[in-house]
Write a structure and sequence with these properties.
Blueprint: H1 8-14, H2 17-24, E1 27-31, E2 34-37, E3 50-53, E4 58-61, E5 68-69, H3 72-80, H4 87-96, H5 99-105, H6 109-116, E6 137-140, H7 147-154, H8 156-166, H9 171-176, E7 180-182, E8 187-193, E9 198-205, H10 207-217, H11 219-240, H12 249-256, E10 260-262, E11 283-289, H13 292-300, E12 305-307, E13 320-325, E14 328-332, H14 334-337, E15 341-347, H15 352-365, E16 369-372, H16 380-384, H17 389-392
Helix pairs in contact: 3-4
Length: about 400
């Protein structure tokens, strides 16, 4: 038998990462880019940290285990602990019994059997060259006009002002960032927009409405939901060997009313929130947060800030960004986006996954970036409702006192 290249490409075209992960792992939740699963390589808590990016066929865990796979072969090899030298055959056997391999190499049934059991005396094959993970590409263009934004913004007075006041924001800040309310989903809306259009809408759960709706559903429904969660935890405990915790009312609340929802990947574009801050000339520094409300809080206090809300989608250094502006597409890398900033403060949430994500952003942005975390509380908005930012970062002076009217 002649030496032949293994048909990695054919297998990856035929089998999606999301479908393969779904056959192996326990799904926790979906988002606009794919889905989060409970990671099999470490003991996850209440939430799954293993994210599958559907469009890019990429998988990564945002916990300290930091598992990352560029394709389905990486996932299957790690999950089943296949021998790296013969893992591609084991993966083919798992995926389709080797049928794509048989077609690509025009193997007889006997030769296919020899290949899959690694009998190379009569089935001599050559391993493919090392697979190279190509840079990801980001197409940045606002897909929405301002029509829906204005609808949500018009609902702010009746439904949203009290909530945002409770988060420490002024009315002027709410108007500046076009905060609104979605009466169909009963959620507070944070639009990500520039002067041209809207990249997308992030919807935050209206806790008051959700609690009332939960009570209205009744105890019978609540107990049924708890039973479903309990059965799922029992299944997980068989795999992890850990004693499952009995589900609570709050577990049901978080499952039925997720804290945040986004638009679908085909509808929204993931991009920097408050991007205009980077376009207004040179900056002494800027804060990069992982939550829009943290950036809004910093901006209101006079500190320039932008946010990238999806840790799973933050560009790596080599990734290519095609930024559309005035009918032209400009090719950039993430470091080019921050080129007018002397110092980048990357704000990490005070938990393990937040710190891991901040280190990845720091590696992508380079030497002029520094990771900072609030001394208490989980994030910036929580901290600033009880403390002054100057108490946290006395060496960083406010830089926006004379610029935004809302500050």
């Amino acid at each position: 038998m002649q030496h032949r290249e293994f048909p990695f490409k054919e297998y990856k075209q035929h089998f999606r990462m999301l479908d393969v992960a779904d056959t192996l792992l326990d799904l926790d939740r979906t988002d606009s880019t794919g889905a989060f699963f409970f990671c099999p390589f470490h003991v996850d808590g209440e939430n799954g940290n293993l994210h599958v990016h559907d469009a890019e066929d990429h998988i990564k865990c945002f916990s300290p285990c930091q598992f990352e796979g560029g394709d389905i072969f990486d996932l299957l090899t790690a999950y089943f602990n296949f021998d790296p030298d013969t893992a591609h055959y084991d993966c083919a056997r798992y995926l389709d019994g080797g049928h794509l391999l048989q077609a690509a190499w025009q193997l007889s049934n006997d030769d296919l059997a020899r290949v899959l059991r690694n009998d190379f005396k009569t089935a001599c094959v050559k391993k493919s060259a090392t697979r190279v993970i190509r840079p990801k590409e980001f197409i940045i263009k606002p897909p929405h006009d301002f029509k829906q934004l204005r609808v949500y913004e018009a609902n702010l007075e009746q439904y949203g002002v009290d909530y945002w006041l409770g988060r420490g924001l002024t009315y002027e800040t709410m108007r500046h960032f076009h905060l609104g309310y979605d009466t169909e989903t009963h959620r507070h809306v944070i639009p990500n927009c520039n002067h041209v259009g809207v990249y997308g809408f992030k919807r935050r759960r209206d806790d008051e409405w959700a609690r009332a709706d939960l009570r209205q559903r009744g105890m019978a429904w609540l107990n049924d939901m708890k039973n479903g969660i309990w059965l799922r935890r029992l299944e997980r405990s068989e795999k992890t060997g850990l004693e499952p915790a009995p589900p609570t009312d709050d577990d049901v609340f978080k499952k039925v009313y997720p804290k945040f929802i986004w638009g679908r990947a085909q509808e929204d574009t993931m991009w920097l929130f408050n991007e205009d801050r980077l376009l207004n000339g040179k900056l002494l520094y800027v804060f990069l947060t992982s939550a829009e409300v943290d950036t809004i809080t910093l901006e209101q206090a006079g500190y320039p800030s932008v946010a990238w809300a999806s840790d799973a989608q933050f560009p790596d250094q080599q990734d290519i960004i095609y930024y559309t502006f005035q009918g032209k597409s400009i090719k950039l890398h993430i470091r080019d986006v921050f080129r007018n900033v002397r110092q980048i403060y990357i704000v990490a949430d005070n938990d393990e996954s937040g710190l891991a994500a901040a280190h990845r952003r720091c590696a992508a942005l380079g030497r002029n970036s520094e990771i900072v975390s609030t001394p208490t509380e989980k994030d910036v908005n929580d901290y600033c409702r009880q403390h002054a930012i100057a108490d946290w970062l006395p060496h960083v002076p406010p830089a926006l006192w004379s610029k935004p009217a809302y500050a």
